[in-house]
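User: Sequence for MoxR family ATPase below. Tokens please.
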Amino acid sequence: MSNGKEIMDRVLYEIKKAVVGKEEVAGKILMALTAGGHVLLDDIPGVGKTTLALSFSKALSLDYKRLQFTPDVTPSDITGFMMYNKKSGEFEYNTGAILCNLFLADEINRTSAKTQSALLEVMEEGRFTVEGETRQVPQPFIVIATQNPIGSIGTQQLPESQLDRFMICLSMGYPTPEELSVIMKQRRVDNPLDKINSILSKEDILNMRKEAAEIFVHDAIYDYVSALSTKSREFDMVSLGLSPRGSMALIRMTKARAYLSGRDFAIPDDVQNCFGDVAVHRLLLSTKAKVGGVTAAQIAKDILSQVEVPQISEELLMGEHVES
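Assistant: Structure tokens for MoxR family ATPase:
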């Protein structure tokens, strides 16, 4: 098995050349990529989301495309369309933006529900159909979608069923004053993106996914994830908790974090570290929570604090992993 910790360190080293002070966010995106999931960045414009996506495409040798989602974007802009060629006398397929390895869907909540659905169908199925012909997206494939905070001009809330397709939801936030000074100085002469080296191939990423999927997960950790999911549905300030898809996403992120930490087995801390990112966009808050100004992130922390953590040592996990 590859040294996941070394891979994590090498990737973050390259990302830091262009993205200042967002190592935790970058690490979570790499976990989602390793777990085969998609990422939703819920944040204000101008904090570096596009730069972050471009940094990953360069460091991981991924074909990259970006589409600005405005009200006039149509499903065919994503999937492509058939056009009649007068010379050949035949209809030919015109490539859509989705045929890439890393697709940045910028401001996804500013476009129509029909266009959102077209993208989310590709995310779920890994394929799409144009004029009766089905096409596969290249592998590896990941969508990083950004959305402006709800209430911003021209935005509309994504339905819960569509939000559930994203493995994790992250927020970059503003840089600190010190980080902002570094960012401004970096761009005085050249573009820091030009300094990023490609250190992994597409085949490397596919191998990472296979190895992460083989990470050993003890029954106690499966039970822990189940208990957290159940608690999220019973919590008094939540109208809708984690779905089974959300529970499975948490397990996959848990395995990815263990792998990128250099372990062959998962520990409870892996679950705790990923729970908020997996849960925050899946929790539908009750009226009581909204009126009280309680956020989904706060509720995720409360759920973690109210569910007993399995007391299982790394030595035992390591031993059971070897025996299995």
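Residues 1-202 form a domain with the Rossmann fold fold (CATH 3.40.50.300).
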